[in-house]
Amino acid sequence: MFGMLDYRAHQLFLIIFGIPLFVIRWIVVLGFPLIYYSIGHSVVDGRIYSILISLGCLAIGEITWPFIASGLDKLIMFIFNLLVDVIPADGRTKEEALAVVKGGQQTIEALNLSKKRPSELTDEDFMVYKRSIFTLFYRDKIDERIELIKEHYKNSNETRMNEYQIKNLLEKHSLQVDWLEKAICNPVIRGWVISYTFFIYLIVFNPFNL
């Protein structure tokens, strides 16, 4: 075991686990729907029954996968911690340092954003909302939100941003995040949309004629 600062440990984490985690993610997004579809069409005859079986498999998968994913995450971090003693940088806690190991620069920016006084936030602090290529078509709208939030907290003495307050502020100026933007820019929701769309396509059109 050797010591390494959290942001540097993130690079090693990607080298060791980046490809396996990428493969697992796409197995979940595309492979699981294919498995549910295959089970439904191989267990019973009849279109309606096979769809019902596939939907049942989907429900079971949605219930059990979070527990499996949590266990897998703990196993991966246990193995990584056997190899590397993660050293928190820039005053971060041990828990925050481990989050940086997994999330890298985006996590660092999110942590900085949550710790600073709202009145001290700069454009650089808000980059966490703009780094993803998927935000490309919403950059102007995101910039408007950032300027609105900065102006709102400009002379504020609050120590933390209030999510409920910000939500109301954005809605008041018609700058709230709509469902389409969430589906495109949020990686978790984007994964759900792709997965469920693929699953619906499989059970409705039965492209493999099972």
Straight-line distance between termini: 51 Å
Largest sheet: 2 strands, parallel
* Number of H/I helices: 8
Write down the Rg: 22 Å
Helix-residue proportion: 55-70%
Unreliable stretches: none
Structural class: mainly alpha
Could you report the average pLDDT, rounded to the nearest whole number?
91
* Number of beta strands: 2
Q: Enumerate the strands of the largest sheet in spatial order, edge to edge or round the barrel.
A: 1-2
Number of domains: 2
Residues in β-strands, percent? under 5%
Give the CA-based shape.
flat
Order of helices and strands: EHHEHHHHHH
Oligomer: single chain
Describe this structure in words.
- It is built from eight helices and two strands, in the order βααβαααααα.
- By secondary structure, it is mainly alpha-helical.
- The chain folds into two domains: 2-87 and 189-205, no CATH class; 116-177, no CATH class.
- The chain has a two-stranded parallel sheet with strand order 1-2.
- The radius of gyration is 22 Å and the shape is flat.
- The chain starts with a strand and ends in a 5-residue tail after the last helix.
- 14% of the residues are buried.
